[in-house]
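Let us practice reading a record.
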Amino acid sequence: MSEQTSDPTPAARKISPLVKNLLEFGPVVLFFVAYLRLKDQVFEIGGTSYEGFIIVTAGFVPLMILSTLILWRLTGKLSRMQVMTLVLIVVFGGLSVWFNDERFFKMKPTMIYLLFGGMLGVGLLRGQSYLRVVMEEMMPLQDEGWMILTRRLCAFFFGLAVANEVIWRMMSTETWVYFKTFGLTAAMFLFFMTQARLFQTYGLEEQGEAE
C-alpha cells in the first residue's frame, strides 16, 4: 500500500527503496529502541510526572510528521492510507501526551484497522473494491481477484483490530510494544504471502501468458 494509485494525476516520483523504507519504518524502529531505553524512567516536567512511554510517544508524533512530509516532498504524493494513518497518530498520540494516559496511543492501531476495514467493507457493500484504487498498479488482478482479496483483507483488518484490543488490555505495555513493532508488520507480510495462489490465479500477466 504505497504511494501509487490509479488516479490520472501525475505519477509519483521514484525514490530509492532504501530511502522509502527508512522513512516509513524508521520512526517505528526508533520508537521501539527509545521505549526500551526509557521504559523504566519517570520524568518530571512542569510539576507532572511522565513515564518513559509517554515521553517516547511525544517524540514519535513529530518524527512521523517529519518523515511523512519528507516522503511527500520526495515522491510528490501520499496515499490516502498514509494520510489517514498520520492523522490518527497525531490525534491519539496527542491525546496520550495531553492527558498523560498511554491508553489513547495503544488504541491507535485499533482505530486504524477499524477504519481501513470499514472503508473496504463499505466498498464491498457497493460492489466495488476500494483496495484496487491504491494497489492496482502494484499487482494487477482480474475483477474477481480484487473482490476476493478485498474481502479477505477487510476481515484481516478487523481481526488485527481485535488482536490489538486484546493485547493492550490484557498484557503488559512492553508486550504491546513488541506486538506493535514486530507482530503487526509480520502479520501483514504473512497475509500477503498466503495470497500467492490468488495472485497466480487472477493475475493479469499470468492470464496473458496462458493465452
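A brief commentary: Residues 1-10, 206-211 have pLDDT under 50 and may be disordered.
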